[in-house]
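The material for today's practical consists of a large collection of protein records. There is nothing in a record beyond a sequence line and a structure line. As an example, a complete record with its sequence and its C-alpha cells follows:
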Amino acid sequence: MPYPSFPLRPTPQGLMKSVRVCAKRYVCVTPLLSALSSFPQGPNTEQGSPCLPNRQPTMQSLGKENHSSVSEFLLLGFSSDSQVRLALFSFFLLLYLITLLGNGLIVTLIYLDSHLHTPMYFFLSVLSLVDVSYVTTTMPQMLVNMVCPKNTISWGACAAQMFIFLVLGIAECVLYAIMAYDRYVAICFPLHYPLLMSRPICIKMITGCWCISVAGALIYTIFTMQLPYCGPNKINHFFCEVPAILKLACADTSFNDFLDFILGFILLLVPFSLILASYVRIFASILRIHSTQGRLKSFSTCASHITVVIMFYGPAMIMYMRPGSWYDPERDKKLALFYNVVSAFLNPVIYSLRNKDVKRAFLNVLGHRRTAQ
C-alpha cells in the first residue's frame, strides 16, 4: 500500500494556520508558567508554601524578621496637643541654648586662662564637653519632633543614639566620682595633692573613664538591639532609651532586666557610694576649720555639688536598676529630663560660675583686669 504523499513546501494557507495555533498556545501557556514560577522553589524558603504545612519560626528566622518587620520606630514624645508642643518647644529650646552657652563659656575660659590649668578645672572642662555632647544627643531631635508631624527614627539611628547617649551618660557618672576624689585629695591631703593629682594621673583617669563608658554602652546596646522587634514600633519616650525599647521586644526580657541591674550596680551605685564616702571625709575636715565663715562657705559649695550629684544619680538609678514591672512611661520621661537636661543646665552654674577664679578669668578675657584685681 503506498504511503500518502506530503507536500515538501507548506502552502501559504498552512503557514497562516500554524502561526495562529502557536500564538494561541503562547498566550495561554505564558501566564501559567509565570504563575508557577512565582511559587517557592523548595521547602527551605522562609515564607513557606500554601500547599505545605507552616513551620514554627526559629530564633534565626526571628532575627531576620526583626530587621524586616521593624525598620523604624515612632517617638511619641511628650504631648500630642499642638499648643502644648509649641510651649514645650520654646521652653526646651531656651534651656538648650543656655546649656550650650554656659558649658561653652566654661570650656573657653579654662582654655584661655592659664591660672585655670589645674586638675580641678581640667575635670570641669571635660564635664562641660560631656554635658554639651550629652544634651545634644537628645535635645535637637526632640525639638524637631515637636514641630514636625513625622516623629520616626530608623532602626540604625535609634541604635546609634542609644550607644552615644549611654557612652556620655556613663562617662558623666565616672567623672563625678573622679571630681569628688579630686576634692577629697585637695582638702584632706593638700600637701600630697600635686603628687597624687599630677597631669599623667589625670589623663589616665580620663582615659579609664572613657574605656569604662564605651564598654558599658556596648553591652547595653548589643543586648538590647539584638532582641526581635516585630511590632508595635511606637516608643513612648522622646529618645531611644533602653527601658523604653525593651518594652517593644517580642521576646522575654528578664535576662535584660537582670543585666541592667548588674550594670547599674557597677556603673551607678559604686561611683555614687565613692562620691558619698569622699564627701563624708570632706565634711569631717570642714568641721575642723576654726573660721565660721570659711566653714559655711565650704559647706555651701559641697552641698551644691551633692545636690547636682543626687539629681543625676537618683533618677538614673531608678530608671536602670528597677524591675521591668515598674515601667511607667510618663514618669520615665520626667526622670530622663533630670539626668539628661537639668543636670547639664545646672553644672556650669553650680560647679563654675559661682567660683571666684572663673569670674576673674571671665573679666580677664573681657579685658577688665583692673576690675578683676
